[in-house]
Amino acid sequence: ANVTVTDLEELQELLMVNIENNKHLVTGSVRAKVLKWGEDVTEFQPPPDYILMADCIYYEESLEPLLKTLKDLTGPDTCILCCYEQRTMGKNPEIERKYFELLQMDFELEKIPLDKHDEEYRSEDIHIMNIHRKQA
């Protein structure tokens, strides 16, 4: 696959180190780019086939920029796989509830059952969602 890994500017060096350390495993291409949620994504077009998200649901102020970015990045055939750890402390349950409520305005969600997760890494508090744009 041709892969773009993204994070904020201050984490680009770490992304590059990880790419270098794992280049022997790469059979396609991999590049690191800055992606700040809520900002312009035209350089990431055309829409990717897959978006992999891990632990992106963590503070309330990020929800709307994250959702805007997902709407701007996805096409009708883009599959988003979202993995997150369910946290029960503080405002986390409310933030998670709000995220999925807002997400369902434009996207369809399918929770991947725990028995379909990798046996070695599955955990009751780790959830994986398959997400697609709603068809117009």
Overview of the molecule:
By secondary structure, the protein is of the alpha/beta class. The protein has 2 domains: 1-34, no CATH class; 37-133, Rossmann fold (3-Layer(aba) Sandwich). It is 24% helix and 27% strand. The protein has helices at 12-21, 63-73, 92-103; strands spanning 2-7, 29-34, 50-54, 79-85, 107-111, 126-133. α1 links the parallel β1 and β2 (29-34).
List the helices and strands and how they pair.
Layout: E1 2-7, H1 12-21, E2 29-34, E3 50-54, H2 63-73, E4 79-85, H3 92-103, E5 107-111, E6 126-133
Parallel strand pairs: 1-2, 3-4
Antiparallel strand pairs: 4-6, 5-6
Pfam families: Methyltransf_16
Keywords: Methyltransferase, S-adenosyl-L-methionine, Transferase
InterPro entries: Methyltransf_16 (IPR019410), SAM-dependent_MTases_sf (IPR029063)
From the 3D coordinates, which CATH architecture of the largest domain would you assign?
A: 3-Layer(aba) Sandwich
- Report, as a whole number of angstroms, the end-to-end distance: 29 Å
Q: What overall form do the CA principal axes indicate?
A: globular
* Name of the top-level CATH class of the largest domain: Alpha Beta
According to CATH, what is the topology of the largest domain?
A: Rossmann fold
User: Helix- and strand-based class?
Assistant: alpha/beta
Radius of gyration using CA atoms only: 16 Å
Q: Report the sheet with the most strands, covering strand number, pairing sense and barrel closure.
A: 4 strands, mixed
Number of strands: 6
| Strand order in the largest sheet | 3-4-6-5
Query: Averaged pLDDT, please?
Result: 93
Helix content: 10-25%
Counting DSSP H or I runs of 4 or more residues, the number of helices is 3
Order of helices and strands: EHEEHEHEE
Q: Uncertain regions: pLDDT < 50 for 5+ in a row?
A: none
Report the β-strand fraction as a percent range: 25-35%
Number of domains: 2
Q: Please name the fourth-level CATH homologous superfamily of the largest domain.
A: Vaccinia Virus protein VP39
